[in-house]
Specification:
Helix content: under 10%
Number of helices: 1
Number of strands: 30
Largest sheet: 6 strands, antiparallel
Strand order of the largest sheet: 22-23-24-27-26-25
Oligomer: single chain
Radius of gyration: 19 Å
Structural class: mainly beta
Shape: globular
Strand content: over 45%
């Protein structure tokens, strides 16, 4: 496990470069993001450890970031003053472009992985915006009417994007539809909905949960209609957006506090990673892979299990909340404060990831041992 200290700045988001396996960016904020400056770190993985190649200070906190898909040296950051800034790491000090349209904190930015010429943002002001790095103003504004914590383009379509909000809903937008009817909205899925018992399933419906703020979501990289989402109620859920009324496909309990980030593996279609305010990162299977559970029944494990290599503990949450064949594969417990961000490395051997938290630490670690590899 490798470590880098973001001295004086609390980590909020981490992203591996899509061009280099040895480059990582971290968005951070002073004073836990409540007041003060932000800092964008550009870090290099070297034989001597993790080294800071460059950093950029901002006047307000940084809450999220994404790398450009067309320019290896550029990344976008989301700030607490409502602005979005584009930095070129080949230059010094100042952003090459800045946009100021959101009325509240910008909490998420995400680059279009298919078209590669646009990115989206979401804000506490209840809107999504779509941008081009070549334009000085936004291309489109989509109201969500709720504080929106996370927004993302589908990795399978240049025209579909999604968001999760404080009203406990996952929304799907298709930019190919007319805007006049419902602002491109094609589905609104309540995260707290009770799963529908399916005829082919032997799993009983879990205990009902009240609505709560949804903080994060991510598209599956291999199965185009599948999305994972999580938030304040501590549960990780997966959904099939083709059947919005059926409720979640899987409900994965285990975290003790709110889940701040989920990320599907770029290598394995059934594996995802989560980061939480309970100071852990957890690795899950959603149960969709053949042979994940040879018995055909959900494997319930005790909340306290054996600690594996690198401080990774096997465990499972409250079984009354679980649904489907998914289960926790393990957890990493090396952070000492809220874990805010996590990301998978796209290159090399599957299983390498990075996590950041309010403990002013970036950790780079390998989860292959947890997944039985």
């Amino acid at each position: 496990m490798l470590e880098f200290r973001t001295q004086g700045f609390n980590g909020y988001a981490v992203k591996y470069s899509p061009f280099f396996d040895s480059r990582i960016a971290v968005a951070s904020a002073a004073n836990f993001g409540l007041v003060g400056n932000g800092r964008l770190y550009i870090l290099g993985l070297t034989p001597k450890g993790i080294l800071a190649e460059k950093w950029f200070d901002t006047q307000d906190s940084l809450y999220d970031l994404c790398w450009s898909e067309t320019h290896e040296n550029q990344c976008v950051v989301a700030t607490g003053d409502g602005s979005i800034k584009l930095f070129d790491i080949a230059l010094d000090e100042f952003p090459v472009r800045s946009w100021q349209e959101h009325k509240r904190e910008v909490f998420a930015v995400h680059w279009n992985l298919v078209a590669k010429d646009t990115f989206c943002s979401s804000s506490w002001d209840g809107t999504l915006k779509i941008w081009s790095p070549e334009r000085s103003d936004s291309l489109l504004t989509i109201p969500t009417h709720s504080c929106t914590y996370s927004a993302s383009f589908s990795p399978h379509s240049p025209s579909i994007l999604s968001s999760v909000s404080s009203d406990s809903h996952l929304r799907i937008f298709d930019l190919r539809t007319p805007s006049s009817a419902s602002n491109h909205l094609t589905a609104s899925i309540p995260l707290h909905a009770t799963p529908q018992q399916r005829p082919s399933s032997s799993y009983s419906s879990p205990a009902t949960m009240p609505p709560s703020e949804a903080l994060t979501h991510d598209w599956n990289k291999y199965r185009s209609p599948i999305i994972a989402a999580a938030g304040v109620d501590r549960l990780v859920r997966t959904f099939d957006i083709r059947s919005p009324a059926q409720g979640p496909l899987a409900v994965l309990p285990g975290h003790q506090y709110a889940v701040r980030k989920v990320a599907w593996s770029p290598h394995l279609s059934h594996v995802l990673l989560s980061a939480s305010y309970d100071m852990t990162c957890r690795v899950w299977t959603d149960g969709s892979a053949v042979g994940v559970d040879g018995s055909g029944q959900q494997q319930q494990q005790q909340q306290q299990g054996e600690v594996g290599p690198g401080g990774i503990r096997m465990g499972m949450g409250d079984p009354s909340l679980a649904f489907g064949a998914g289960r926790q594969l393990g957890q990493m417990e090396r952070h000492t404060e809220f874990v805010m961000g996590v990301d998978w490395c796209l290159f090399g051997a599957e299983g390498w990831c990075a996590s950041v938290g309010w403990d002013e630490r970036l950790l780079v670690w390998d989860v292959r041992a947890v997944m039985g590899r």
